[in-house]
Amino acid sequence: MNNSRELEKSIHVDLARQETYGGYLQLDRILTAQAPRSPVHDEMLFIVQHQTSELWMKLMLHELDAALEFVKRDELKATFKIFSRVAHIQRMLFEQWAVLETMTPSEYLQFRDALGRSSGFQSFQYRALEFMLGNKDANLLLPHRQDEAVHAFLAKRLAQPSLYDEFLRYLSRHGFAVPKDRLERDFTQPYRRSEDVVRLFRDVYERPEQHWDAYEMAEKLIDVEERFQLWRFRHMKTVHRIIGHKQGTGGSSGVTFLQRALELTFFPELWDVRTELRSPAHRSP
Question: What pLDDT does residue 18 have?
Fold first, then answer.
Protein backbone atom coordinates (compact mmCIF):
# COMPACT_ATOMS: atom_id res chain seq x y z
CA MET A 1 0.00 0.00 0.00
CA ASN A 2 1.35 3.40 -1.00
CA ASN A 3 1.17 5.65 2.06
CA SER A 4 2.35 8.84 0.41
CA ARG A 5 0.78 11.49 -1.76
CA GLU A 6 2.55 13.47 -4.43
CA LEU A 7 2.21 17.23 -4.12
CA GLU A 8 0.31 18.53 -7.14
CA LYS A 9 2.41 20.89 -9.25
CA SER A 10 -0.42 23.44 -9.42
CA ILE A 11 -0.43 24.00 -5.64
CA HIS A 12 0.93 27.44 -4.74
CA VAL A 13 4.04 27.30 -2.56
CA ASP A 14 5.65 30.66 -3.33
CA LEU A 15 3.45 33.01 -1.36
CA ALA A 16 3.64 36.45 0.16
CA ARG A 17 2.44 36.51 3.77
CA GLN A 18 -0.80 38.35 3.00
CA GLU A 19 -1.79 35.61 0.56
CA THR A 20 -1.48 32.73 3.01
CA TYR A 21 -4.05 30.94 5.10
CA GLY A 22 -2.36 32.12 8.29
CA GLY A 23 -2.09 35.66 7.02
CA TYR A 24 -5.74 35.86 6.00
CA LEU A 25 -6.88 34.54 9.40
CA GLN A 26 -4.23 36.52 11.29
CA LEU A 27 -3.21 33.36 13.11
CA ASP A 28 -0.07 35.04 14.40
CA ARG A 29 -2.35 37.22 16.53
CA ILE A 30 -4.89 34.57 17.47
CA LEU A 31 -2.45 31.80 18.41
CA THR A 32 -0.25 34.10 20.48
CA ALA A 33 -3.22 35.54 22.41
CA GLN A 34 -3.07 32.78 25.04
CA ALA A 35 -0.99 34.02 27.95
CA PRO A 36 -1.33 31.76 30.98
CA ARG A 37 -0.37 33.41 34.26
CA SER A 38 0.70 30.17 35.88
CA PRO A 39 2.70 27.10 34.85
CA VAL A 40 -0.37 24.91 35.40
CA HIS A 41 -1.27 22.71 32.40
CA ASP A 42 -5.05 23.24 32.58
CA GLU A 43 -4.96 27.03 32.47
CA MET A 44 -4.56 26.78 28.69
CA LEU A 45 -7.86 24.88 28.47
CA PHE A 46 -9.57 27.57 30.53
CA ILE A 47 -8.25 30.38 28.33
CA VAL A 48 -9.01 28.71 24.98
CA GLN A 49 -12.51 27.76 26.17
CA HIS A 50 -13.38 31.36 26.93
CA GLN A 51 -11.65 32.86 23.92
CA THR A 52 -13.51 30.59 21.52
CA SER A 53 -16.76 31.38 23.31
CA GLU A 54 -16.10 35.07 22.71
CA LEU A 55 -15.52 34.38 19.01
CA TRP A 56 -18.82 32.52 18.74
CA MET A 57 -20.57 35.34 20.59
CA LYS A 58 -19.04 37.84 18.16
CA LEU A 59 -20.54 35.88 15.27
CA MET A 60 -23.90 35.57 17.04
CA LEU A 61 -24.04 39.34 17.54
CA HIS A 62 -23.10 39.83 13.89
CA GLU A 63 -25.99 37.59 12.81
CA LEU A 64 -28.59 39.02 15.20
CA ASP A 65 -27.67 42.57 14.18
CA ALA A 66 -28.42 41.58 10.59
CA ALA A 67 -31.71 39.96 11.66
CA LEU A 68 -32.76 43.11 13.50
CA GLU A 69 -32.16 45.23 10.40
CA PHE A 70 -34.29 42.87 8.31
CA VAL A 71 -37.12 43.13 10.85
CA LYS A 72 -36.93 46.92 10.69
CA ARG A 73 -37.34 46.66 6.90
CA ASP A 74 -40.34 44.27 7.24
CA GLU A 75 -38.33 41.40 5.72
CA LEU A 76 -39.07 38.65 8.22
CA LYS A 77 -38.40 35.81 5.80
CA ALA A 78 -34.82 36.98 5.41
CA THR A 79 -34.26 36.45 9.14
CA PHE A 80 -35.23 32.79 9.14
CA LYS A 81 -31.98 31.52 7.65
CA ILE A 82 -30.09 33.76 10.06
CA PHE A 83 -31.91 32.20 12.99
CA SER A 84 -31.03 28.73 11.70
CA ARG A 85 -27.36 29.73 11.77
CA VAL A 86 -27.73 31.28 15.22
CA ALA A 87 -29.17 27.97 16.44
CA HIS A 88 -25.97 26.18 15.41
CA ILE A 89 -23.81 28.86 17.03
CA GLN A 90 -25.75 28.41 20.25
CA ARG A 91 -25.28 24.65 20.00
CA MET A 92 -21.51 25.16 19.75
CA LEU A 93 -21.54 27.43 22.80
CA PHE A 94 -23.55 24.84 24.72
CA GLU A 95 -21.37 21.89 23.76
CA GLN A 96 -18.16 23.71 24.71
CA TRP A 97 -19.00 23.35 28.38
CA ALA A 98 -18.36 19.61 28.03
CA VAL A 99 -14.70 20.34 27.28
CA LEU A 100 -14.32 22.54 30.36
CA GLU A 101 -16.02 19.88 32.48
CA THR A 102 -13.06 17.58 31.88
CA MET A 103 -11.21 19.80 34.38
CA THR A 104 -11.64 18.72 37.99
CA PRO A 105 -12.03 21.07 40.98
CA SER A 106 -8.52 20.22 42.16
CA GLU A 107 -7.04 21.09 38.76
CA TYR A 108 -8.89 24.43 38.62
CA LEU A 109 -7.76 25.43 42.11
CA GLN A 110 -4.14 25.13 40.99
CA PHE A 111 -4.47 28.29 38.88
CA ARG A 112 -7.70 30.00 40.05
CA ASP A 113 -5.83 32.70 41.97
CA ALA A 114 -4.18 33.77 38.70
CA LEU A 115 -7.59 35.04 37.48
CA GLY A 116 -7.67 37.76 40.13
CA ARG A 117 -11.02 39.54 39.81
CA SER A 118 -11.61 38.59 36.18
CA SER A 119 -14.93 36.86 35.53
CA GLY A 120 -17.23 35.89 32.69
CA PHE A 121 -19.71 38.38 34.17
CA GLN A 122 -17.45 41.07 32.67
CA SER A 123 -17.86 39.79 29.10
CA PHE A 124 -19.09 42.83 27.17
CA GLN A 125 -20.21 40.68 24.22
CA TYR A 126 -22.38 38.54 26.48
CA ARG A 127 -23.86 41.77 27.85
CA ALA A 128 -24.50 43.04 24.31
CA LEU A 129 -26.33 39.80 23.50
CA GLU A 130 -28.52 40.22 26.56
CA PHE A 131 -29.32 43.80 25.56
CA MET A 132 -30.11 42.67 22.01
CA LEU A 133 -32.54 40.09 23.37
CA GLY A 134 -34.14 42.43 25.89
CA ASN A 135 -32.48 41.95 29.28
CA LYS A 136 -31.96 45.68 29.88
CA ASP A 137 -30.34 46.96 33.08
CA ALA A 138 -28.12 50.06 33.28
CA ASN A 139 -26.33 48.59 36.29
CA LEU A 140 -24.79 46.03 33.95
CA LEU A 141 -22.68 48.84 32.47
CA LEU A 142 -20.86 49.39 35.77
CA PRO A 143 -18.06 46.82 35.29
CA HIS A 144 -17.17 48.54 31.99
CA ARG A 145 -16.69 52.12 33.21
CA GLN A 146 -12.90 51.84 32.97
CA ASP A 147 -13.06 51.19 29.19
CA GLU A 148 -14.64 54.19 27.45
CA ALA A 149 -15.04 52.49 24.07
CA VAL A 150 -16.72 49.38 25.49
CA HIS A 151 -18.90 51.46 27.80
CA ALA A 152 -20.09 53.60 24.88
CA PHE A 153 -20.71 50.48 22.76
CA LEU A 154 -22.90 48.95 25.47
CA ALA A 155 -24.65 52.21 26.39
CA LYS A 156 -25.72 52.60 22.77
CA ARG A 157 -27.10 49.05 22.68
CA LEU A 158 -28.83 49.55 26.02
CA ALA A 159 -30.76 52.51 24.59
CA GLN A 160 -31.73 50.80 21.34
CA PRO A 161 -34.91 48.74 20.85
CA SER A 162 -34.28 45.04 21.32
CA LEU A 163 -35.02 42.42 18.69
CA TYR A 164 -38.35 41.78 20.42
CA ASP A 165 -39.15 45.50 20.49
CA GLU A 166 -38.56 45.68 16.75
CA PHE A 167 -40.75 42.63 16.20
CA LEU A 168 -43.59 44.34 18.09
CA ARG A 169 -43.08 47.42 15.94
CA TYR A 170 -43.31 45.20 12.85
CA LEU A 171 -46.59 43.74 14.11
CA SER A 172 -47.95 47.23 14.72
CA ARG A 173 -47.06 48.28 11.17
CA HIS A 174 -48.94 45.23 9.90
CA GLY A 175 -52.21 45.95 11.64
CA PHE A 176 -51.84 44.25 15.02
CA ALA A 177 -53.09 46.17 18.05
CA VAL A 178 -49.80 46.52 19.92
CA PRO A 179 -50.28 48.87 22.90
CA LYS A 180 -48.69 52.27 22.36
CA ASP A 181 -46.79 52.02 25.64
CA ARG A 182 -45.01 48.93 24.27
CA LEU A 183 -43.95 50.81 21.14
CA GLU A 184 -42.94 54.13 22.67
CA ARG A 185 -41.04 53.62 25.88
CA ASP A 186 -37.65 53.99 27.52
CA PHE A 187 -35.73 51.14 25.90
CA THR A 188 -33.06 51.25 28.59
CA GLN A 189 -35.64 49.71 30.92
CA PRO A 190 -36.63 46.03 31.09
CA TYR A 191 -39.60 45.03 28.97
CA ARG A 192 -42.81 44.55 30.95
CA ARG A 193 -45.35 41.87 30.09
CA SER A 194 -48.61 43.06 28.49
CA GLU A 195 -51.87 41.14 28.55
CA ASP A 196 -52.81 42.85 25.29
CA VAL A 197 -49.70 41.47 23.63
CA VAL A 198 -50.55 37.99 24.94
CA ARG A 199 -53.94 38.25 23.24
CA LEU A 200 -52.28 39.47 20.06
CA PHE A 201 -50.03 36.41 19.97
CA ARG A 202 -52.98 34.16 20.76
CA ASP A 203 -54.53 35.33 17.49
CA VAL A 204 -51.26 34.64 15.65
CA TYR A 205 -50.96 31.14 17.07
CA GLU A 206 -54.60 30.21 16.63
CA ARG A 207 -54.61 31.37 13.00
CA PRO A 208 -51.10 30.67 11.72
CA GLU A 209 -52.30 30.30 8.14
CA GLN A 210 -53.32 33.99 8.22
CA HIS A 211 -50.20 35.24 9.98
CA TRP A 212 -47.53 32.79 8.86
CA ASP A 213 -44.50 35.10 8.92
CA ALA A 214 -45.33 36.44 12.38
CA TYR A 215 -46.02 32.90 13.57
CA GLU A 216 -42.70 31.65 12.25
CA MET A 217 -40.83 34.62 13.71
CA ALA A 218 -42.38 34.01 17.12
CA GLU A 219 -41.16 30.42 17.06
CA LYS A 220 -37.67 31.49 15.97
CA LEU A 221 -37.48 33.82 18.95
CA ILE A 222 -38.63 31.07 21.29
CA ASP A 223 -35.87 28.87 19.86
CA VAL A 224 -33.26 31.54 20.61
CA GLU A 225 -34.44 32.06 24.17
CA GLU A 226 -34.73 28.36 24.95
CA ARG A 227 -31.18 27.71 23.74
CA PHE A 228 -29.94 30.75 25.62
CA GLN A 229 -31.49 29.42 28.81
CA LEU A 230 -30.03 25.98 28.21
CA TRP A 231 -26.63 27.64 27.78
CA ARG A 232 -27.12 29.50 31.06
CA PHE A 233 -28.14 26.28 32.80
CA ARG A 234 -25.12 24.39 31.46
CA HIS A 235 -22.87 27.24 32.59
CA MET A 236 -24.38 27.13 36.07
CA LYS A 237 -23.96 23.34 36.34
CA THR A 238 -20.37 23.52 35.08
CA VAL A 239 -19.55 26.15 37.71
CA HIS A 240 -21.31 24.06 40.37
CA ARG A 241 -19.34 21.00 39.31
CA ILE A 242 -15.98 22.78 39.46
CA ILE A 243 -16.22 25.26 42.37
CA GLY A 244 -19.32 24.17 44.27
CA HIS A 245 -20.83 27.15 46.11
CA LYS A 246 -17.65 29.21 46.37
CA GLN A 247 -17.85 32.91 45.61
CA GLY A 248 -17.09 33.77 41.99
CA THR A 249 -13.81 35.42 41.06
CA GLY A 250 -15.77 38.52 40.01
CA GLY A 251 -17.32 38.84 43.49
CA SER A 252 -20.72 37.28 42.80
CA SER A 253 -22.26 34.49 44.85
CA GLY A 254 -21.32 32.10 42.06
CA VAL A 255 -23.82 29.32 41.49
CA THR A 256 -26.61 31.16 43.32
CA PHE A 257 -26.13 34.23 41.11
CA LEU A 258 -26.23 32.08 37.97
CA GLN A 259 -29.36 30.29 39.17
CA ARG A 260 -31.18 33.62 39.47
CA ALA A 261 -30.37 34.37 35.84
CA LEU A 262 -32.50 31.37 34.88
CA GLU A 263 -35.55 33.24 36.18
CA LEU A 264 -35.12 36.01 33.59
CA THR A 265 -37.11 35.89 30.38
CA PHE A 266 -36.69 37.83 27.15
CA PHE A 267 -40.06 37.31 25.46
CA PRO A 268 -42.66 36.83 28.22
CA GLU A 269 -45.79 36.92 26.06
CA LEU A 270 -44.43 34.28 23.70
CA TRP A 271 -44.20 31.90 26.64
CA ASP A 272 -47.46 32.91 28.32
CA VAL A 273 -49.53 32.60 25.15
CA ARG A 274 -49.10 28.83 25.27
CA THR A 275 -51.28 28.69 28.37
CA GLU A 276 -53.92 30.88 26.73
CA LEU A 277 -54.36 28.98 23.46
CA ARG A 278 -57.82 27.50 22.84
CA SER A 279 -58.81 24.50 20.82
CA PRO A 280 -60.72 25.29 17.58
CA ALA A 281 -64.02 24.25 19.15
CA HIS A 282 -63.66 26.88 21.90
CA ARG A 283 -62.66 29.88 19.83
CA SER A 284 -64.98 32.76 19.03
CA PRO A 285 -65.90 33.16 15.34
Answer: 66
